[in-house]
Amino acid sequence: MSVPIPRQRTAVLPQEAAPAGDARDDAARAAGPAAAPAGAVGGPDASAAAGPEATHPGPAAPASSAASRSGDTGLTLLLIGEDPTSSVPETRDWEGRKVRVRTARNLTEAERLLTDDVHCILLDLAPAGTRERTDRDGPAAAEDGGHDELGALRAVLRLAPSHAVLALTSEADAERAAEAVRVGAQDYLFRDELDGAVLSRAVRYAVERKRADLAQRQLTESRMLAQENRRLERGLLPTPLLDGSDLRFAACYRPGRSRALLGGDFYDTVRTADGTVHAMIGDVCGHGPDEAALGVELRIAWRALTFAGLCGDALLCTLQKVLENERADDEIFATLCLVDIAPDGRHAGVCLAGHPAPLLARSGGAPRLLPQEDGGPALGLLPHARWPRRQVALGGAWSLMMYTDGLIEGRVGNGNQRLGQEGMAELVGRRMAAGLRGEDLLDAAVTEVRDLNGGELTDDVAVLLLDRERARN
N or C: which end of the chain has fewer CB within 10 A? Predict the structure, then answer.
């Protein structure tokens, strides 16, 4: 079947029907009846004028992006019907400008004419007699939906899911017209009573309703995706396993990414069968989704290896192999701090892999940093590195705070001065002297660090606190 040259139709709309100055008012009034018939169909012939843009078909684009440009170029209407010479009254957009009209006899031609500047599709639903004729014609009937009463409409909606669609039918087919709206059309028009004012309002209303529907759908999808991400990220955060221990656990986690729940920092705490409490905190360089995923892998690997009986240097060597095999880039590294608290709660072994030393506050004393000198390099930097394990006396009652560098690298004031480990120790000491403990202590400390920084911290922050209030009898 030969494809006719697309035509652009224009005709002057009578002033009493739709004055240019009242275009916006008509569009506002049209927003009332959502599914009611926009009017009746049938009007004078429009003069045909070929438009240069009609000879350059291109891929279809979402109605929202096309409509956003309508303020500069006006609206374009694509008429799909078996009779390409059928008349369409002249219509006007919100600014009173003439709406360009293209015509297509079938879906094949419509697909060629559905360029990115088409804003609305007017589908002429053939009457019963015509449908029977097209059924006998074979390919044309299949293309337009076959015996399905609204097959053509369904095909158009599949072809142009982001475009506004109006169904054009006779008043005798009112039930089918209403069904067209239920199937997905924005509105329907009666062919026998169509005039310029009715079509103008219907086109403008359909474009705006489709734009609103797409925006609402995108908003709903974004909310659902955000909820799924939150559930996923919450599930990836650890649950401490400290059954049987007299230690109290608290943690604070704030990712540097906007609207994220999980960053490149990670932590975990478990108690093994011999009564030893193992705590770990780490930081993958960077704070994007890839770093967050790698941090989760390292945390899970640490938990499995700890329950398998590894600790200290042997555990870190194995974690380095995991990092080397799972990282996306050879430049990626991770810092870790491991603490193994003896079953009596009075001693601990500490391993540092390029990570800041923990903060220890014994009963009645100010917090102080544990030695940093015996630490080893970060994981992923040296292939045959070793990490010595330092023994630390904790005492009867104590608090041990482990943290990532996001807590100490925030700025202090408007200059380039950083808070640092000493500043952080002094800040935590003041909060502890005020009687804060557990999560209240961590929340207050992180909030003060953020306030000193003059706003949100750009790096991920993870803080883990273990408390032992008194010695066991």
Answer: C
Using an 8 Å Cβ cutoff, are 50 and 138 in contact? no
Tokens 């350059």 locate to 56
Q: Which helix (H) or strand (E) holds 219?
A: helix 196-236
Of 133, 125, 106, which is closest to residue 173 (Cα–Cα)?
125
pLDDT digits (tens, 9 = 90+) for 144-187: 444 466 888 999 999 999 899 999 988 888 888 899 999 999 99
pTM: 0.57
3 state DSSP class of 178: helix
The answer to whether residues 144 and 155 touch, using CB atoms and an 8 Å cutoff, is yes
Q: At what angle do helices 289-307 and 312-326 cross, to 10 degrees?
A: 140
Whole-angstrom Cα distance, residue 107 to residue 110?
A: 5
| Integer angstrom CA distances of residue 197 from 24, 93, 177, 210, 226 | 13, 11, 20, 20, 43
- What is the rounded CA–CA span in Å between residue 353 and residue 220? 44
Task: Select from 246, 241, 279, 271 the least CA-distant residue to 470.
Answer: 246
pLDDT digits (tens, 9 = 90+) for 299-349: 999 999 999 999 999 999 999 999 999 999 999 999 999 999 999 999 999
110-126 burial, b at 16+ Cβ within 10 Å, e below that, comes to: beebbbebbbbbbbbbb
